[in-house]
Each structure stands twice: as structure tokens, then as C-alpha cells.
Amino acid sequence: xxxxxxxxxxPAILDSVDALAFQTRQPYPWINPQHxxxxxRYGELLATVPPLEQFRAFFGKQRKHGQGSHxxxxxxxxxxxxxxxxxxDFVEELCSDYYRDFVCKLLDVAHVRFRFHWxxxxxxxxxxxxxxxxxxxxxxxFYLNTEDDWQLGWGGETVILDDKGRIEADNAPAFEDxxxxxxxxxxxxxxxxxxxxxNSWHGVRRINCPENHFRKVFIVxxxxxxxxxxxAKQARRLVxxxxxxxxxxxxxx
Length: 253
Known about the structure:
- The chain contains seven helices and eleven strands.
- The chain is an alpha+beta fold and about 250 residues long.
- It has a seven-stranded antiparallel beta sheet.
- The mean pLDDT is about 90.
């Protein structure tokens, strides 16, 4: 896989990922690599993260199946938005064939599209155990905290949860209901990549950090792209008078 002159992504790390080992990992595919971004460029991204003023508050939203609200501040990426040159160039590199081919190989799919967003989570926020919607085939979470601004005791780890196949996705289990858990390392240029399956339970326990500190992540959502299926879907929308392109689809790249 050619790096095609990657400026932010670290070819040594991408090329070292074993797709078969990833696909066969239990309880579902996941890896927690470090230095996925070149260290010097990672520092530039940390220094130019979008300010909180650009985010929208997302609190107290009831989730399906009775799961608890995932309270946080959210910023969706859209081309042309106010953004530092470093972040603009990083996202464009994630849209490149190099990264796209890496994800396709990892998930064993022919085509993939991406959505991007930032989440800032304050004290008291948590992500209740859940499985992602069927529209997603995976995600990569880039953690944007370091030992300089985040203490391990404050929490914030994404926890991979193993239910041994016991719990249907349309439930609202607690962390204590699972047989095993695998917390991801989150500081200092770590990321978490996982593939969605029927049992891809994960969550983040309640955060306990001082005011004005935030668990900061940048998330790439993977959605399988089937062009002919999209054409058929848009034809049905045209007949029924529905919006041809949804807001979510408009933010896919």
C-alpha cells in the first residue's frame, strides 16, 4: 500500500497492522495503536483543535432501547468550515486513497465512506454501553489528550465489552453486566479502531475531571458505500417526495 506522500499519517504504523489478526480478534475486531499520526504533526493538531465555541451542546438526549444519554459537546466536520490549516489538511489526508484503502483492507469491504466529528466531554459525562447502528461498519477514535492535560484517574477510556453473545443489541445493559472488558489506552497519540458487529458493545464510564477539562476525541465513522444501492434509495425518495440527500449523507466523504 503506497503512502502517496502522507504528511500526517505514519506509514510505519499503518503498514504494521495485520488485517487478518484484526478481523479475528475477540470479542470483535479492535486495535489500539499508538503513533498512528506522526508525533510532530500530532502536536500541531493538539495545538489547533477547534475551540469549544464552535461546538453544539448535546445533553439529556434519550437514546433508543432506554440507554442513557451520551452527554458531550459535538462538532461535525464539513468542508469549508472554519478550521486550522493543520486540521483541514489532516482530514483531507484521511479522505485520500491511502487511508481509504487501509480501512477497506482492514474491514474487508470494497468501498467505504467517512463522516468526521469532534467530541468534547466534560466532568460527569459518560457513554452508556451500546452497539453502533447498522449503518456504521466501524470507527477510528483519535484521542486528543496527553499526560499534560489529563490524569488517568479521571477516566475517559473507551471500554471494549464482551457479553459472550448473551445480550441483544436492543437492550440497555450496565457495565457490570458484561463478562469481560478491555479499556483502551487514550493518552499521547493513541487511537482505537474497531469494526461493528452484532456484539460490538462499548462505552465510556462516567468521567470525573475538574471543571474546564474535557475528554477530547476526533472520530472517523466508517460507512460502507454501495453506489447502486444509493441510486435505488434516491430513486425511491424521488418518487415519495422525500429529501434526496439526508443531512448525514451530506457529511459523508
